[in-house]
Amino acid sequence: MKNAEVSRIFGNIATILEILGENSFRIRAYERAAQTIGGLSEDIEEIAQNERLSEIPGIGHDLSGLIKEYLKTDKIKLYDELKKKVPEGLLTLLDIPSVGPKTAKLLYEKFKIKNIPVLEKAIKQGKLKQAFGFKDKTIANIQKGIEIFKKSRAVMTLAGAELLARVFIAPLKKERAVKKIIAAGSLRRCKETVRDIDILAVSSKPAEVMEAFCSLPEVADITAKGATKASVRAKDGTQIDCRVVEQKSFGASLVYFTGSKDFNIKLRGLAIKKGLKINEYGVFRKDKYISGATEEEVFAALGLPFIEPELRENTGEIELACKSKLPRLLQLKDIKGDLHTHSTWTDGDNTIAEMAEAAKSLGYSYIAVTDHSQSLKVAGGLSVAKLKKKKEEIEKLNARLKGIRVLYGTETEIDSQGKLDYEDGVLKEFDIVVAAVHSGFKQSRQQLTGRITSACKNKYVQIIAHPTGRLWGTREAYDIDMDEIFRAARDTNTALEINSFPKRLDLNDANCRRAVERGVKLAVNTDSHSVEQLSAMRYGVGMARRGWVGAASVINTLPLSQLLKAIRK
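and the corresponding structure tokens:
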């Protein structure tokens, strides 16, 4: 699985070109390529093998050549040459959020700081302030950036873990000895970040499965290998465990290795009260096997209905299951459309028509194209004059499209004072208005909260995008009063977004659950900037399910006519 590495290299090429003062269009091309490849849900090696690299938005002949070069040789000559033009170690510092090219170059040239441990030592000794006159706030931001960087290196995003698991599971599925195979652990529970991957297989020939698993091309190191279990490290350093069980134990093993640990402890306690014993081999009364071939059998033996994997965190789900009161969770098939996407009108990679056709292929009956508003210059935000042309294009499209409706939308900026980027006279023309904060993240809790609640009160705003602003590996959630935002959203009939983009997943599971408990409506969207990213909806749905969200709480489960009525203020 080389998506992440190709994305990283293209991102680094863009950074080096920026340091060297190269053409901004060339820099942007590499940045967009890095973002697009990083967001792919398909293995780039498979795409290349099928000669489909040119189908990836923004990947032309030159970039395709570089990707093929890397897949064949594990390196890119251009990248190696560019690295020689900047001080060694500079790129390592640039992995730290809040450390830009100028700061990294200063740290290196003035103090020979070329890696994170040396930087941490310099901060501890107070040398940054003494040598460079850095302000306390700047130093604090660098320290926070280091913490974020370390956390991001210890785990993967849900999407990254899913793709890596697929790379290991897909070839094993083809093995004749493998009867069933599935990823368990935190990946199956759809946790927003995953530390390692657990794979469970059914086979009567475990030795053959172990040999096939340990021989996979993505294996960098075999750390343990037994008769029915093996542990390896993938080339990216992730630990992958594979266990082989008999069919009669598959369900019990799947419950056990899906977890969570706290859920399993609670389940064992319930079993003991019923005079039973439960482990990865099955459910037993004394030493007599009762059940364990399927998860449903395991739960039934304990007098429980099936408990969805996303709920298994010991946060009240077992108690509700005992009373047959588990919530009906949102399913991907419940989603009728995506209400937050972007097109080539601003910073998207595909036209509105292409986004609409892709949405239709996913079974949606509508898609809102919500390009950025005028003040977000970096994303090519639309002036009022351009909005008119975009609306005309959508109207012409809707006149000829069948089976799907394109909604005229915007992702409008909420400025530092809580004002929106367009006047009400402009906003009222949209079918969907998504409001978002993209700047001023370091304002006070009161200011940031006030900006969002003020947007909720605008009669034309239907959705607040990525409400807490977190960006995994780059930026933590900003400090806001969620209770106040929940109140404002509920009282103004404003939906809060569950942003499905893998590095956001914002709202998170805890806030999803709190929102539903407070009567807040939600919208599960992808924030897609290309047709490939539309498939990320499943990650947002997974987050919603972890937050105990049902279809009735999500506005884009409604048919279009009902949706347009439901969002009115």
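(Above: one complete record from the training split.) The first strand starts at residue 156 and ends at 157.
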